[in-house]
Amino acid sequence: MKGATHAHLSDADDVTGVLEFDEGPTSAPVDAARLAIGDAYAGTRTFSETSTSEESRLAVALDGVYSPEPEGRLLFSPNWMPTGWDGTGAGWILDIDNGLLTHNLVLGPGASQTTRWSAAGHPGVQVWVGPVHADTEAPLANPLVIHGQGAVGAIVVRQETEGDRVVRVAGLATASRTREAAASAERKARVAIGRGAGALMAEQRRRWSQRWEHAQVEIDGDPRSEQRMRYSLFRLLCLADHDDELALGARGLTGMGYRGHVFWDTDVFVLPALSSFAPSAARAMIEYRLRRLPAARRLAADLGFEGARFPWESAASGFDVTPRSATAPNGQTIPIRTGELELHVSADICWAIDIYRCWTRSDEVLRAGGADLIADVARYWATQVNEDADGTAHLRGVIGPDEYHEDVDDNAYTNRMVAWNLRRAAALAGEGRLDATSRETARWVDLAERLANGYVDALGRHEQFAGFDSLEPVLAETVAQPPFPADLLLGRDAVQRSQLIKQADVVMLHALLPGVPPPGSCERDLDYYLPRTSHGSSLSPASHAQVMARAGRPDEALRWFEIALGMDLDDLTRTGAGGLHYATIGGAWQAFLLGFVGVTVDSNGLRVSPNLPQAWRRIRTRFTYSGVAVEIVAGHHEVVVTAEHPVPLCAPGGTARRQSRLTLSRVGGRWTES
Ligand code: IFM
User: Fold this and answer.
1) Residues enclosing ligand 1, CB less than 6 A?
2) 472 three-class SS
3) Going by CA atoms, what residue is nearest to atom 10 of ligand 1?
4) Residue having the nearest C-alpha atom to atom 4 of ligand 1
5) Which residue in 99, 380, 529, 581 is deepest, having the highest Cβ count within 10 Å?
6) Mind listing the pLDDT tens digit for each residue in 376-433?
7) CA dist 64 to 159, 252, 583, 613, Å?
8) CA–centroid distance, residue 338 to ligand 1 (Å)
9) Its pTM surpasses 0.85
10) Which fold has domain 35-213?
11) What are the sequence ranges of the domains in the chain?
């Protein structure tokens, strides 16, 4: 494995750095996304130089450049790469070790190759190198300016002939004003073309080798999962090196799905993953939310609440951009109620800030506005929660993560997240890290105590929402093999009357708040809800893999992990043309690191308690904790944690000590320090 400083765990060294893709008309729309190139600033969907399709015309997206109408969609701009050549594509080779995508082509009588990449170290610069060809002569008009809502994008293309090849570069930039965006794009393109293809490629290899130093995965015994996990990591590493604000939509910059809008996918699935190896990108995602706190305050006030409420779908302004209806395949208009009722995103954002703090062990984010955000969201909950005469508190008329059931009362996930949010805000105030009056904090803690949490003592598990257990008991496997969209197969009304759920819901609270629900409830919730889950949302399989592995069921977890890893590569949900599923990508890394490797970070330090499937002999992983590179090598009986500098580490149930090496052995099913 290139870029690693150690020997590979197994003999089959370096087999997982290259992925090959056959090519054909049916795979082309999916390849556009799964082979897209880009970084956190700009993306270009991948099309063959021989493509003549309509889709290949609009290929470029710039972070934060949304159309001006109220429900703004991410704007896609003209493709700057050559298309329309005479010839046939003969397959793609994605070199994830070096971030290079090579295309085999047959042009006339001869074979040919082109290579494209997003230039690491040059944010917003992309490169294409190919043979001299009649159609390589006409780049776009320079600069191409895209006017978005509050942001302007610009694309400048430069091209040189170097011997028998053509080098084309695109400088892609955004700014608040046209002149600045155009000047920045021009500068990027000029600098890149001035370096020449050879130097750019050498720099690409060097930078990617450094990127892989921050995040690595090796799975001895399962090269397929290793390769696929590395593909997901590659996708996340493409977002590294960001220092402004990052609005990562559900499909990133790789497709038009969900209009490029930002959901909880970003905060709960991607951000924790990036916190563990690219904290500056995670911080940029938080910055996106911090800058939209004024809009969240407006949203709360407009609805008659105090504090701040974040919208379910967010774009440039931070106001709610959730569409109010959609058209079903049969032409029927379907109301979309998530914008009005899916409230948990506000608590999710607070949780994301807290988890980022745990990974970085720094309060900078609180001082930079995070504390105000958490306080204002607590204030919002304190006015949104309904209090009954009997002293109980409730959240009525919501949608939880399971979007098949709308307008429900006391969704266990939402309520537990809200209670966590209220308590965390009060605790931070108690530590002097957040401004709130003692009256406010006393009320927050009191409300958190009184808020229904869905836990049913007699059953030892949660009821997903009030009345869920009385719905028609339908099990997913009696309908189809998961993952499947139950609402499309059975109809919305039938699904709403049943216990079929779309995605991890109660299971999500065990993923985000391990140790908060009563002991034993995680296993019972898994046993109850998994058979009822259709995994109709791509977010679901990875979350199940994580929770199941942590619950000590890694062999079962492996099935869901493999499904998550195949989501984009195998286009399992047939939605791949709309872009990569970033929540699945981030969720897969969390399933690996937090589930199978069993890493937990909290205010005490980093704990590790591996749960490897039988099929895995050993794993090795690298990540960053508290700014320090950490490596874990784990087998079924021994685990060694090595940190470049001392950091707080501990065995399960132990007390963290600052150290740079921790060795654990498994004795009688328990991990203890050796
Ligand atoms: O955020 C998700 C949601 O949980 C399920 N529907 C799709 C959204 C975007 O990925």
Assistant:
1) 250, 258, 263-265, 401, 403, 537, 539, 583
2) strand
3) 250
4) 401
5) 581
6) 999 999 999 999 999 999 999 999 999 999 999 999 999 999 999 999 999 999 999 9
7) 27, 10, 18, 41
8) 10
9) yes
10) Beta-galactosidase; Chain A, domain 5 (2.70.98)
11) 35-213, 618-673
